[in-house]
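User: I'm new to structure prediction. If I give you an amino acid sequence, what do you actually give back? Let's try with this one:
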Amino acid sequence: MKLYQSLTIGALATASLFALPHIAKADSLKVGKIKDENAIIITNKTAMSKKVAGDFAQYTLYINDQHTINGEKYYRVQTTDDINNAIGYVKASDLKINTTKIVPTKMKTYTIKATSTKLFEVPNGSSRQVIDRISKNEVIKVEKTIRVNASTYIYGTLPSGMKGWINITNDVGRKPVKRNPIQQKAKPQVKPEDKKSIDAEPEETLVDIASQPRPVGEGINHIELPISIKDALKIQMSLHPKPQSSNGIKWKNAQRKDVLNAMNPEDAMVDPVQKYQFLVLNEPQHLTADQLNILLQGKGILEGHGEAFRQASIKYNINEIYLISHAFLETAEGTSTLAKGVKVEGEDKNKRFYNMYGVGAYDKDAVKYGAKYAANVGWDTPNEAIIGGAEFISKGFVSENQNTLYAMRWNPFAPGDSQYATDILWARANANYIHAYYQKLGIAGGKFNFVHYAK
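Assistant: Good question. You get back a string of structure tokens that encode the predicted 3D arrangement of the chain. For your 455 residues, that looks like this:
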């Protein structure tokens, strides 16, 4: 059995939630998904602090406890069935809640029948929540059974001690649904807007991209892909939800030609801004503390701590500018309570504890628990918090195969799998942001991994 690393949700708050002990179970749990990456999560009802769903929309979440906020119905959503791993409250209309029912467990053990079966972190999990793949004839000790919509999942323990959920829908004795000949011959229904897109954009006319002169120089790599852009585009257009585009007001399914333009690595490669889609993020740039302090000017308590970010980038092998960007996001650019330090009951009264990445700061009391986590690991100076928290950034966001913005968005090595966004302009927008920082420093960037689709 080959062990696969369990993927971490692409948001720092989630990485920190997983660091907490699993002690409290929620009642009446259901599972489901946030419909849109732009849906709002209320992370603290008292302070009414909010954030966009982002990558949480790419995961199956536990849904629990109805709440009324400003007269509207909300549910608490969680990354596990542990209440302590709640990420906040989402409006009911922004959730797709599956019918979930606990059913009697009729077997103490279950023998895997397929050649390769996925083991999930949660029932009805997404591709990002696959823990492992289990080989045929392996035996799992069954602890509970649950039905999600029409699918049946068992939860159990493998001989290795690994636990997880398996879909056994096809092995529970269900009778196949009979269809009459007319139904069998019926063509699949196509929505009017999809039909218009298909009719207006024949696939064969939209798969050519012009090769560009390849940049050369130190730190520049060119990677030949085994898949053509035609085949990669076909996979992207078959995804659910489909690639999305926005007119600035609302999101809609992106047209094929727009997806192709966004995927085109050749034009981006030679663009002075968009080449930053291919900047390698899991390597330090070896910038000086003085350079980093330029970016930190006016950023609250983070100002002047360029040396700490420099050390963090080297210790945890992460791009300094990318690391600083995350710290800005999590601390409201160095102005949050946790960033400025909190005294913790039971600790030295003369000490404050700092948390620059929101590690452990979950919704029940973000400041209290975030500070408590910081105290537990000894983050009693801003520098300790910057360097210590960088480990979560390096492990939770950038993998070896998805170490550029382009790879995080389009995953050209495995199109359609473990992609970080549905917005077709996600990589471009982030490239603009990172390029601006490099411009401010007056430097051109470090290592680039450009990709080229097969012809």
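You can read the tokens as a compact description of the fold. Here is one thing that stands out. The first strand starts at residue 30 and ends at 34.
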